[in-house]
Amino acid sequence: MVRREDYERYDVIAAMDEENMRDLWHLTGGDPQGKCHLLLSFAGEAREVADPWYTGNFDATYEDVLRGCRALLAALEQRLPAGEARS
User: What span, in angstroms and rounded, lies between the C-alpha atoms of 78 and 14?
Assistant: First the structure.
């Protein structure tokens, strides 16, 4: 669960669906620092993670989360100063 004070503590906050994004928008006062993103946006996809309870396809959800997390990690690694990237 994300708390209001988390907004100042973290550089990036990822949500899996639009409902969570709306909640983050309200919690953060409109995301003034642009820290909130849909997870799959890091993978270049403007969509939500597949809801396994709605689709019945837990494998698709796993693949979405994996793709989003890998892309998020790559984006974060690009932000590191030279020599600090993980090997």
Answer: 17
